[in-house]
Amino acid sequence: MQHLPDALQPGRPFPLGATWDGLGINFAVFSANAHRIDLCLFEPSGRHEIARYTLPEYTDEVWHGYLPDATAGVLYGYRAYGPYAPEHGHRFNHHKLLLDPYARALAGTVHWSDALYGFRQHSLRGDLSFDRRDSAPAMPKGVVTDDSFNWGDDHPPDVPWSDTVIYEAHVRGLTMLHGGIRPSERGTFAALANPAVIDHLRRLGITAVELMPVHAFLQDRALQQRGQRNYWGYNTLGFFAPEPSYLSDGTPNEMRVAVRRLHAAGIEVILDVVYNHTAESDETGPTLSFRGLDNASYYRLEAGDLRRTVNDTGTGNTLNLSHPRVLQMAMDSLRHWVSSFHVDGFRFDLSATLGRESYGFDPGAGFFDALRQDPVLAGVKLIAEPWDIGPGGYQLGNHPPGFAEWNDRFRDSVRAFWRGDRGQRPAIAARLAGSADIFARQGRRPWASVNFVASHDGFTLTDAVSYAERHNDANGEDNRDGHPANFTSNWGVEGATDDPAINAVRANVRRAMLATVLFAAGTPMLLAGDEFGRTQGGNNNAYCQDNEVSWLDWDMAASPTGVGLTAYVARLIALRREHPVLRHPDFLHGKAHPAPGVADIAWFDQTGATIPVEAWNDIEQRTLILRRSMKVPEGKVTILNLLLNPGDQPHDFRLPPPHLPSRVLLDSAQPAAHARSVAGDQIAVAAHSAVLLYSEHAG
């Protein structure tokens, strides 16, 4: 930085954030209720403040100023002056250094101290008291960035939704135990960009990685006091900055390189994003950014008690996306990740919160309307986690067109069906058909249902067949956290066992569930590591387990069992890719007939007979045949029969007419077997297994 001037020039109110233009830096920050905002500059270590300026201009509720001759790399923060009146929703405290909500990089981390709070800890007046200690030594600083990057010939893979196969992964956990990656790069974007990782994804046939939160996030004080860490990252400090610990070289360009290399491999990048709350918790939480800049604007406050934050998210606060500047921040953030990092989509954490107006959830909420009309975001994939803990918080199927949604009913139905529960046949039929009962409206397509049996939030696939109960004691919450109802079975023994019979059943059920995910209509999603048998030891809420509990064990991937299961998953994905009927772009209703006597979708029992209504209502019936057909460009009609036997005994299935020559494309009980012809119209289906058969009709 050159000689520092005595005062800032007026600058501009747009764009928000700190913008280097080659000649200097424009600073602009929103606050509707502050009386004054100071810009604080720090030397490169971030330990010492070297200059402080009052932002000289206030335009349209934006404070702004321009620092001439400054260059990228400047470390900065803000101090906001205004009323400290919690009873009126205001919590200004100029003794607290505040992160710029638009900071594009962070230097340093939060060092927990009572000075981070706007009120005196342990005061009898609680959050009505006022703390005068300087929080700057305990705060990270924003970094002014130069966002130029040579993208070369990078272009989005632009994979159609119907062809998409998602792999949900954690940047850190994916590679911390990968022996083929340098230790200094493990757990970072540099490791994600490593050919060893990308080659694994390509061999599987993955088309998109969905990364758990990569926005800069906070390490919670309570977790640190327990010797734990916020591993998942759902506690955002800044919506524009990559998490510093995921950058081995400390620069955001490391993430850009990873995106570019994944794109070169034909793999899209989807970010799990958290715009429903921030890391500042409830009214008793720290003052790090938003609270100190304008608590009454950034957060939803209780109508009858402005001292309290609304907690529809279960994290203590809820961002006020009904405020135009807060909505602008979310939209600017999304555009930033698409424009500056070339990401291909977003998965919205607790999206019911994002669509909740003062009167309740609304598919036409301001956030959804802004998102759907934005030209920068028009081509990206949008995925909703369609629930939260607020009023009317379960909104599966109620998001607007253009969204896909995590379908937990698919997860629960598939687990219950393959566990052998009674009365599951109608549910599994609906889920295999793309959950048309939930999504077939407003022109939505089957891809709107994101189908999974395991995700970061819950059991891994292996644990879903190894544990009947959660085992979360290591989390320090007396095993009360995590989902209590998981629709799982241990098949005889809780946890790992040497019993070959139990392990054989577990392996069969696991393969059958994977086949169900890949052969169902909709968008399949796999949890990283499930392809080779990853376990969390029965922990179904490993949010604070930044250790071997959560990290992928690549030695397991190299074991004979891991290699075999990985090959099986790759085969499932290949079959989905090779047979368009498995990823049909439209909901099938059995009304079209691609061939005489062959509907586009139909259901049969194990005798090959159409299932009558009374049989659908028979809770003891479990076996099922799903037949789907479509005319392919060559003029012939492809017919696929999926035979499901969730019981503990093998069954002979008779194929429905017309009886055409058939080949077994896959038998989950014989994962390594090659395709074979079926003699006649009958085939044996092993216990706990699925069989996919292929036939052709001349059309």
Can you tag this structure with a few keywords?
single chain, 699 residues, alpha/beta, Immunoglobulin-like, eight-stranded parallel beta barrel, six-stranded antiparallel beta sheet
Describe what you observe in this structure:
- By secondary structure, the protein is α/β, with parallel strands linked by helices.
- Among the domains are: 17-143, Sandwich (Immunoglobulin-like); 582-697, Sandwich (Immunoglobulin-like).
- Helix content is 22%, strand content 20%.
- The chain is built from 17 helices and 31 strands.
- The strands form 8 sheets. Strands 12-13-14-17-20-21-22-23 form an 8-stranded parallel barrel.
- A hairpin with a 6-residue loop joins strand 3 and strand 4 (49-54).
- Helix 10 runs antiparallel to helix 14.
- It is elongated and about 90 Å long.
- The N and C termini lie far apart (74 Å).
CA(first)-CA(last) distance: 74 Å
Shape: elongated
The percent range for helix content is: 10-25%
Mean pLDDT: 97
CATH classification, class level of the domain at 17-143 = Mainly Beta
| Poorly predicted tracts of residues | none
Radius of gyration over C-alpha positions, nearest whole angstrom: 27 Å
Secondary-structure content class: alpha/beta
Please state roughly what percent of the residues sit in beta strands, choosing from under 5%, 5-15%, 15-25%, 25-35%, 35-45% or over 45%.
15-25%
The count of strands amounts to 31
